[in-house]
């Protein structure tokens, strides 16, 4: 009996089975721009369904859809008027069921965007709350205004500024009070101090889990709670940057409208709900991915505090926040170390790596077009989870849109036809290029909600499939090799080489070794890998490298002498790693 128990314990300790999300590969789809099935110029669910095999073929484990719910589209779906319905432009609940079924067939997990901070002002709850219908009065954050002592005019209760500029408060002529909106005025903030509302939102999560989704990306979770005094009033925020326009969010230091303790508590409650759902209903782990651009320590609080479990994936935005086209090998290493070093020392959590999303300019445009493949190599070979925004696999770049073509409220609210583009998120939201036909094969309509980038004739899936080598083919080699234990479970050791021009790291698992070299310098470098890492065989094989590297997959190199060009990344493997060449 005792022997049996001991054997079982040994078996458990040796068991290297990972849960599906651990070391997982995730892909973000922006539904409006992925594929239009009905020719109205707007992407939709049937379009997505028809392309899920492509996503699976990229080597993905999970796919996150930006919001598909009923919405007036003031913020392109992040303003939801019915959490349980599908936006008619995108399809119906039946179409959604077909998407889920297709995901199941392909063994792809579906993650939905959960937008808990605000609804649309066209949500039934808001209408009821504005009309003070009993039971709904406190669903949103309503406050009286103040009388300005100088002008004698009624002004908002605090100086808070919306992410999209101007006051975060708007007057309601119906309720005769102000309501809070941290984003567009058509996105009123929900009141998480109302227990009934808290339950409503939990029910929304359960509803979609019943329908078969594998988890949620949680939108702007940092804003759930605002600091409130006992009398129900709120404090003004201090000025952070007097050089910013006073209508701009960068003017204030958001210490009272973001990252409050209660917010983390709500995140842990949601994690518990997801985990309990699995206990009660079976099936695979349901995950949550949390959006926070706060400092590492705050973003990582979403991993959980003490015994309380939190986000499975607190998005790691360090690359987005810290790096640009001029960033050096040292900048990259510091940024990566910062996330890894800060991670709480507990089991059951994973690092994750992100280059971009629908809110940022294209990764290649921000971080260097010539570094496109290098960046994908980085994200796919670091330890933990990789997250790709649609188009990064093709190394898509920003699409320039005129002021007249611009629709993003964040850009429109600048009222600045000259400098709007730095605020606009549209350059990264244009239609996905499938081939070289009209609109890049995205839609048959003469016009699409945003125009396709002009370079779709060369930068598209079909062309990159047909080419002998391409960004897409490199990407796929990366996602394939990533499934090997050396990447899924291997140790990680990183260093700077060649006068800090090269960032190098070794992944190791049992007798398998992978070495990744990334040359951020301005000249070609000859790297001696053995001088940097122990346990590297004298010869390594080139598994894949940047498109313009001049290197050949499958070629042997001497570990003491690897020649690597500027902006080039290369993945080198020991012969013990099982790989196709
Ligand atoms: C973050 C989303 O990613 C962004 O697109 C949106 O505008 C805001 N949250 C508000 O929901
Ligand atoms: Mg359509």
Automatic annotation (TrEMBL):
Signal peptide: 1-15
GO biological process: one example: carbohydrate metabolic process
A Pfam family this chain is assigned to: Alpha-amylase
Keyword Manganese: no
Domain Glycosyl hydrolase family 13 catalytic residues, every copy: 28-429
CDD domains reported in the protein's UniProt record: AmyAc_maltase
Stretches the record annotates as Disordered: 418-446
Single GO molecular function: alpha-1,4-glucosidase activity
Catalytic reactions on record: Hydrolysis of terminal, non-reducing (1->4)-linked alpha-D-glucose residues with release of alpha-D-glucose
Enzyme class: hydrolase
InterPro entries from the UniProt entry: GH (IPR017853), GH13_cat_dom (IPR006047), Glyco_hydro_b (IPR013780), O16G_dom_2 (IPR045857)
Enzyme Commission code: 3.2.1.20
Record keywords: Glycoprotein, Glycosidase, Hydrolase, Signal
Similarity remark: Belongs to the glycosyl hydrolase 13 family.
Protein name from the UniProt record: alpha-glucosidase
Organism ancestry: Eukaryota, Metazoa, Ecdysozoa, Arthropoda, Hexapoda
């Amino acid at each position: 009996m005792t022997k049996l128990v001991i054997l079982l314990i040994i078996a458990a300790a040796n068991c290297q089975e990972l849960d599906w999300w651990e070391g997982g590969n995730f892909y973000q789809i922006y539904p409006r721009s992925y594929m239009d099935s009905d020719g109205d110029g707007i992407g939709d669910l049937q379009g997505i369904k028809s392309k899920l095999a492509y996503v699976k073929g990229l080597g993905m484990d999970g796919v996150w859809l930006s919001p598909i719910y009923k919405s007036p589209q003031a913020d392109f779906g992040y303003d939801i008027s019915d959490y349980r319905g599908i936006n008619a432009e995108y399809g119906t609940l039946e179409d959604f069921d077909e998407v889920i079924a297709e995901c199941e067939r392909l063994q792809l997990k579906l993650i939905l965007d959960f937008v808990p901070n605000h609804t649309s002002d066209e949500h039934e709850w808001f209408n009821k709350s504005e009309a003070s219908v009993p039971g709904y009065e406190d669903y949103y954050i309503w406050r009286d205004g103040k009388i300005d002592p100088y002008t004698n005019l009624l002004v908002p209760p605090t100086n808070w500024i919306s992410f999209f500029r101007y006051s975060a408060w708007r007057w309601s002529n119906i309720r005769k009070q102000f309501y809070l909106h941290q984003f567009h005025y058509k996105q009123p903030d929900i009141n998480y101090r109302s227990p009934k509302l808290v339950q409503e939102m939990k029910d929304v999560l359960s509803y979609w889990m019943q329908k078969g989704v594998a988890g949620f990306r949680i939108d702007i979770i940092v804003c759930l709670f605002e600091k409130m005094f006992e009398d129900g009033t709120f404090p003004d925020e201090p000025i952070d940057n007097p050089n910013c326009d006073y209508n701009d969010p960068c003017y204030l230091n958001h210490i009272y409208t973001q990252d409050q303790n209660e917010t983390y508590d709500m995140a842990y409650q949601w994690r518990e709900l997801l985990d309990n759902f699995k206990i009660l209903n079976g099936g695979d782990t349901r995950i949550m991915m949390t959006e926070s651009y706060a400092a590492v320590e705050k973003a990582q609080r979403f991993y959980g505090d003490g015994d309380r479990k939190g986000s499975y994936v607190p998005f790691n935005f360090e690359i987005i926040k810290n790096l640009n086209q001029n960033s050096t090998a040292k900048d990259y290493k510091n940024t990566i170390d910062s996330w890894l070093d800060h991670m709480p020392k507990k089991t059951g959590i994973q690092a994750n790596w992100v280059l971009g999303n629908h809110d940022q300019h294209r990764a290649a445009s921000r971080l260097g077009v010539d570094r496109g493949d290098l960046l994908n190599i980085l994200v796919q070979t670091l330890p933990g989870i990789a997250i790709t925004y649609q188009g990064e696999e093709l190394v898509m770049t920003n699409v320039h849109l005129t002021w007249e073509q611009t629709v993003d409220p964040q850009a429109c609210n600048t009222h600045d036809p000259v400098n709007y583009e730095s605020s606009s998120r549209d350059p990264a939201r244009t239609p996905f290029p499938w081939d070289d036909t009209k609109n890049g094969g995205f839609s048959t309509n003469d016009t699409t909600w945003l125009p396709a980038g002009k370079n779709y004739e060369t930068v598209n899936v079909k062309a990159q499939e047909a080419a002998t080598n391409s960004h897409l083919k490199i990407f796929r080699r990366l996602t394939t090799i990533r499934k090997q234990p050396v990447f899924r479970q291997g140790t990680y050791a990183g260093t700077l080489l060649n006068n800090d021009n090269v960032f190098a790291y070794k992944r190791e698992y049992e007798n398998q070794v992978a070495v990744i070299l990334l040359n951020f310098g301005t000249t070609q470098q000859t790297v001696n890998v053995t001088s940097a890492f122990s346990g590297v065989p004298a010869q390594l094989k080139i598994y894949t490298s940047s498109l313009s590297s001049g290197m050949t997959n499958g070629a042997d190199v001497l570990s003491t002498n690897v020649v690597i060009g500027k902006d080039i990344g290369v993945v080198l493997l020991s012969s013990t790693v099982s790989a196709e060449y």
